């Protein structure tokens, strides 16, 4: 039931109506992930309003299917979107938002139906049953069964059905939303349709009726008064006012079902602030056509984990598969979070993607989906904890299951890292004067020796400062040498480039790297090498250090030892 007089389009300030429409048009081009990020991280009220307009039709269709054209359907509609703004920051897969909202709306509507069925207000229950006199009871029940069975389907089949049959999207639009090929969406639609028809038939819905409920929606228009009433009640709630008791009851019930915990704090949720970016305001209609004074509200100022994590974090320590990675290798590595997006720079590689948090789990969970870089297409499942300016993450590398403890034991396939918040003026290590020089041009014998390095190589094993390099890292390392130019890649991305100079007349044989790209660009590294049973073994000192004398490394000596085998000449 709409609480208080609904604001209609006729009563809205025309200037503000233009401003709000412009804000909605700007937000219309943003993805669900971007809109959720704007709302959860910045409290952007236009983002939440855009989501209301985008998915209001689907939510309204579900509520009416269960509750008919009744006041309870309006309460369920409003409660669904209040749940959305309350949980916006913890939705793990934004691309499935339509399916998520369908499930929330269905559960809330069913809860509302049960509440009314248990009540003694039989007249209202009767009104719900007779609200659409031209619709047969069997037909109405079939739609309730449809939404029930739709939620029981596997997500990969249900999600495209919701988008194409409830949202009216094309298969191409659904594929873009779900981030998968069009052909895959078409197959999932076909299989999902067949599975759904079978389930409906088993529930007593005739084949003819089952076919009609699967006809794509042409219009799910939400009454403008309900849209405005939802905005009105949210703004009133944010100002400390009360919403319709049934709406509040439904909201509380759904949040309790989601978290499994009793909510003791008053829930201050806001769907839209009464101010539009500072450009103007709109008046809320009051009794007898009067107008409430303009109230300026922002989104709730509760500091969420997502908000607290925004910014740049420097990697302090890293442990992978039971092996602590030397500090020299992680120096300069960082993670930058902005909204729902992340960018990671680590050991010469750059990764980008989107992340989701669930701070209600214990331990708290994080999922990082990579869209660019060596891990493109992969999703790392993890747990995290935040203690002031220290952020600890444990993520899957090769493991398939999410970790439950903050540890990365040998053979676990996990990585454990500790990060410190960047202050913006982090001290940079003082650069040592590089007094080493590349050896003079090689003689004929050196030139012939250099030709032996040509080709593509892959790493067999690695060691740094007395610690073995994790296999998950070494197996991604490749080396390409051509005309004395050396390029080393990690996971398909360039780690560093260098010009080679060798002297095979020395014992042991010497090799110099003049770095042209990478973390030590402009520096020179001195090393030695040897050929052994078809493999090539190097050991290099850190820039500015003396040339190694043997093929051993010790703790904190800054030396890197690696063994390579040729895969292409």
Secondary structure: elements and pairs:
Layout lengths: L13 H15 L3 H11 L2 H23 L3 H17 L9 H22 L3 H8 L7 H16 L2 H12 L4 H8 L3 H21 L4 H7 L10 H15 L6 H15 L45 H5 L1 E10 L2 E2 L2 H4 L3 E5 L2 E6 L2 E10 L5 E9 L6 E9 L2 E7 L17 E8 L22 H8 L3 E10 L2 E2 L2 H4 L2 E6 L2 E6 L2 E11 L5 E9 L6 E9 L2 E6 L19 E9 L1
Antiparallel strand pairs: 1-2, 1-3, 1-9, 3-4, 4-5, 5-6, 6-7, 7-8, 8-9, 10-11, 10-12, 10-18, 12-13, 13-14, 14-15, 15-16, 16-17, 17-18
Report what the structure shows.
The chain is of the alpha+beta class. The protein has 17 helices and 18 strands. The chain has helices at about 15-30, 30-40, 45-65, 70-85, 95-120, 120-130, 135-150, 155-165, 170-180, 180-200, 205-215, 225-240, 245-260, 305-310, 325-330, 445-450, 470-475, and strands spanning about 310-320, 325, 335-340, 340-345, 350-360, 365-370, 380-385, 390-395, 415-420, 455-465, 465-470, 475-480, 485-490, 495-505, 510-515, 525-530, 535-540, 560-569.
Helix count equals 17
What is the percent of helical residues? 25-40%
How many individual β-strands?
18
Radius of gyration: 31 Å
Largest sheet: 8 strands, antiparallel, barrel
Give the amount of beta strand, in percent. Answer: 15-25%
Q: Which strand order spans the largest sheet, edge to edge or round the barrel?
A: 1-3-4-5-6-7-8-9
> Uncertain spans, ≥5 residues at pLDDT below 50?
3-20, 120-137, 261-302, 429-442
């Amino acid at each position: 039931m709409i609480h208080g007089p609904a604001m209609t389009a006729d009563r809205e300030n025309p200037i503000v109506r233009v401003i709000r429409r412009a804000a909605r048009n700007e937000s219309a081009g943003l993805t669900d992930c971007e809109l959720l990020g704007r709302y959860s991280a910045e409290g952007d009220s236009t983002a939440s309003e855009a989501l209301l307009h985008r998915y209001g039709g689907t939510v309204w269709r579900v509520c009416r299917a269960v509750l008919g054209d009744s006041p309870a359907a309006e309460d369920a509609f409003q409660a669904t979107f209040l749940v959305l703004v309350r949980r916006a920051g913890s939705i793990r897969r934004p691309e499935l938002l339509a399916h998520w909202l369908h499930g929330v709306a269905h559960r809330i509507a069913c809860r509302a139906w049960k509440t009314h069925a248990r009540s003694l207000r039989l007249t209202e229950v009767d009104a719900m049953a007779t609200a659409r006199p031209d619709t047969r009871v069997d037909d109405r029940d079939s739609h309730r069964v449809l939404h029930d069975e739709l939620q029981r389907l596997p997500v990969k089949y249900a999600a495209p059905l919701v988008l194409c049959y409830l949202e009216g999207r094309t298969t191409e639009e659904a594929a873009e939303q779900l981030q998968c090929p069009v052909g895959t969406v078409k197959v999932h639609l076909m299989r999902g349709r067949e599975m759904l028809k079978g389930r409906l038939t088993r529930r007593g819905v005739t084949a003819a009726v089952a076919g009609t409920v699967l006809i794509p929606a042409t219009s799910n228009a939400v009454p403008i008064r309900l849209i405005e009433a939802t905005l009105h009640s949210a703004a009133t709630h944010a100002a400390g006012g009360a919403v319709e008791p049934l709406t509040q009851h439904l909201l509380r019930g759904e949040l309790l079902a989601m978290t499994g915990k009793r909510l003791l704090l008053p829930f201050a949720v806001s769907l839209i602030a009464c101010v539009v970016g500072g450009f103007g305001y709109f008046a809320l209609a009051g009794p007898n056509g009067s107008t409430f004074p303009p109230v300026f509200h922002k989104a709730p100022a509760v500091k969420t984990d997502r908000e607290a994590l925004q910014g740049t974090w420097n990697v302090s320590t890293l442990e992978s598969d039971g092996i602590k990675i030397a500090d020299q290798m992680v120096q300069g590595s960082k993670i930058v979070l902005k909204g729902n997006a992340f960018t990671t720079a680590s050991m010469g590689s750059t990764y980008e993607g989107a992340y989701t948090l669930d701070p209600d789990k214990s331990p708290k969970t994080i999922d990082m989906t990579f869209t660019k870089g060596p891990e493109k297409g992969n999703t790392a499942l993890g747990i995290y904890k935040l203690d002031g300016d220290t952020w600890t993450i444990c993520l899957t590398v090769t493991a398939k299951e999410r970790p439950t403890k903050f540890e990365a034991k040998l053979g676990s396939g996990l990585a454990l890292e500790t990060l410190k918040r960047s202050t913006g003026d982090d001290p940079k290590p003082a650069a040592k004067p590089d007094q080493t020089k590349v050896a003079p041009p090689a003689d004929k014998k050196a030139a012939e020796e250099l030709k032996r390095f040509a080709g593509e190589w892959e790493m067999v094993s690695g060691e740094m400062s007395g610690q073995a390099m994790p296999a998950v890292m070494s197996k991604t390392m490749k080396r390409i040498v051509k005309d004395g130019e050396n390029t080393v890649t990690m996971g398909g991305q360039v780690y560093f480039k260098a010009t080679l100079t060798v002297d095979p007349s020395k014992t042991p044989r010497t090799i110099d790297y003049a770095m042209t790209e990478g973390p030590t660009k402009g520096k020179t590294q001195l090393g030695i090498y040897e050929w052994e049973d078809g493999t090539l073994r190097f050991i290099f000192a850190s820039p500015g250090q003396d040339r190694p004398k043997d093929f051993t490394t010790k703790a904190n000596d800054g030396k890197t030892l690696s063994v390579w085998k040729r895969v292409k000449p």
